[in-house]
Amino acid sequence: MDAKFHLKRDNFEVEVAGPVPFVENLLQNHLAAWLSSMGSEQLQHGTESPSGAAEATAFPRVDPRFQPKVNVTLEEFTQMKEAVSPSDLLIVAAYYLEKYRRQESFELGELHEALKLLPAWECRETQTEIEMPIASGFLERLRDGRYTLTFKGQNYVRNGLA
Prior knowledge:
Elements: E1 2-9, E2 12-19, H1 20-38, H2 40-43, E3 47-48, E4 54-55, H3 74-80, H4 86-99, H5 108-115, H6 126-129, H7 131-135, E5 139-141, E6 147-149, H8 151-158
């Protein structure tokens, strides 16, 4: 899961984005310094540590149900990745579901519903086309019958389907 933090005041601006542990680590190590760079007014909400450095009060957590606005459609994403073959379309769609819709696993019907909106998918059946990505190790069937993108599949999409 990814997180994003943005802090701005006058000419001072910080933006951090990435995996949650990475963002939390940066905030833990640098938030006090960033707040002090913004001026003393911001530190009124913090506390002093024994060493005299300003520490920020508890950082508010984002509600786990929060869904960021996705600025790219599946069709645009498949075009960016230049996915043409049915196998590549399936893998890219699985990546899209995981990263943009936050679905770590999905049923074939959910994957088919996403793919049927693509002109390139035209009359294809997800049930018959999913065998190749599974055999190649890009998708995996879970014990509960759902499917998920593998680490190999993630890297395949990130590396431009290569």
